[in-house]
Amino acid sequence: MKYFLFIVAFALSAIASEQRIICLGDSLTASYGVQEDEAWPALLQKQLNKEHTNYKVINAGTSGATSAGGLRKLP
């Protein structure tokens, strides 16, 4: 049985007052099987844009990623 772990790391940056949200995860984050604009990080970006927030969502999902690999990506 496979378990999917989605790790969403919030990296807040003061560059140009733009806040960044980095989405780490497996193929579901990386938009495997759907159009890139239909992946959940893209949908999150669309919702944030509707709410007129100054956030940029960065999709760092990788097909085949694991929770251990996700932890290695974090500082």
TrEMBL record:
Gene3D superfamilies assigned:
SGNH hydrolase (3.40.50.1110)
Q: Where is the SGNH hydrolase-type esterase domain?
A: 23-71
* Protein species of origin: Lentisphaera profundi
- Its name, as the record gives it, is GDSL-type esterase/lipase family protein
